[in-house]
Amino acid sequence: MYETSEAIDLDFTNYYHEHYNEMYLVAKRVVHSHYSAEDVVQEAYIKAYNNYGHLIEKSKCRAWLRTIVIRTAIDYYRKQSRYETVSVEEGAETGRLLQCPKNDVENELYWRFEQAGLFEKIETLPENMKAVLKLKIDTDGKDQDIADELNISLSAVKTRLHRARKLLKMEFEVVN
């Protein structure tokens, strides 16, 4: 009743070639990158190959394979999303240190000037926004701590942060 290994290999190889383009497009819709989609499809096909002998209904193989590709693509996307890119303003707002490559003196100087420019721009904000934003940076981003410190409502903190971000963004757009 069980198929031989050679029959499974031949059947799966044919199936691979028949559905590769469709599975590539499915993966690309999730990961939004040509090379990443290729990686996802290869990984999904390896998973599918390892479990192909256990597939009972061969007529549902396309849907089964598509599910494996989608789940593999989602996993890949989640792993990539863990390493987010933040702007200088967002990094300072949330208290994150800015990292720059140290192998290039020019890049390091650029990042130091950007960081210094950000703090100069914060000093030009209206006093109520400046106080909220500075506390946001100092208190590791906890809005309730800021509200308690300044004796204002949580919604006032959020409003002032929003307005401060908006003003900083406009300032940086004017410069650039």
From TrEMBL:
Give the RNA polymerase sigma factor 70 region 4 type domain ranges. Answer: 121-168
Asked if the Swiss-Prot or TrEMBL record annotates the protein with the keyword Transcription regulation, the reply is yes
What Gene3D superfamilies does this protein's entry cite? 1.10.1740.10, Winged helix-like DNA-binding domain superfamily/Winged helix DNA-binding domain
Q: Which UniProt keywords are given for this protein, alphabetically ordered?
A: DNA-binding, Sigma factor, Transcription, Transcription regulation
Reply yes or no: does the keyword Isomerase apply.
no
User: Per the record, a Pfam family?
Assistant: Sigma70_r2
Q: Which residues form the RNA polymerase sigma-70 region domain?
A: 16-82
Q: Which family does it belong to?
A: Belongs to the sigma-70 factor family. ECF subfamily.
PANTHER family given in the database record: RNA POLYMERASE ECF-TYPE SIGMA FACTO, RNA POLYMERASE SIGMA FACTOR SIGV
What is the recorded name of this protein?
A: RNA polymerase sigma factor
**Natural source organism:** Amphibacillus indicireducens
